[in-house]
Amino acid sequence: MTDLESTAQRRGLMKRAFDKIMELSAGPHALWLLAAVSFAEASFFPIPPDPILAAIVLARRDRVWIAALVCTLGSVIGGLAGYAIGAGLYEVVGKPVIDFYHLQDAFNNFQTRFDEWGGWIIVAKGLTPIPFKLVTIASGVVHLNLVTFVVASIVTRGLRFVIVAWLFYRFGPQARAIIDEHFNKVMIAGTALVVLGFVLIVYI
Asked: What are the VTT domain coordinates in residue numbering (predicted)?
């Protein structure tokens, strides 16, 4: 198999995976899946819930606001789990998670920024594509005031997911058409955003 054939095969698999996600997003268990991914991403899971949120809105426009709410609540509750890991289980659980994703330098940088920004760091970082688990575990390690942590998490995650949900609600039909017609280009753009997120982790 040539490199070109291998690349085409991988892209074909990704397109089928996308179609499967769209199918699941229209089903009865979609919101439970969204809640589970939102919870896990805030404490240990690498994949953000935004693609699933977008897929649900594309598949079921009537679910736009309930999906944004479920995504926010799942992320905030998962954030509390991440906070607990940082506050009481960092050496046993939190550090291995940070090391696994090679985020130790970013983690140290984040802790330093707490001295400058305090709770506002959560609002600033929570709106970017960086892993939210970095924010939640670090907040627990520095023992950020829990009320401040919860309020900041609700504001930042709620705003992010409402924006994502609204964008796909407003431009959903056009977005689905673009994805179907230019799937490979969309995947490249998505990969670029992930790379940008990790750049932001290190330098901001």
From this structure: 49-168
Structural tokens at position 142: 């520095």
CB 119 within 8 A of CB 152: yes
The answer for residues whose C-beta is within 8 angstroms of residue 44's C-beta and 6 or more apart is 82, 85, 97, 133
Block means of pLDDT (10 residues each) for the chain, 204 residues, are 48 56 72 90 82 85 93 94 87 80 73 69 66 82 86 90 88 63 49 49 48
How many other C-beta atoms can be found within 10 angstroms of the C-beta atom of residue 39?
23
User: Which pLDDT value is given to residue 182?
Assistant: 47
**72: nearest Cα among 101, 37, 97:** 37
The whole-angstrom separation of Cα 12 and Cα 17 is 9
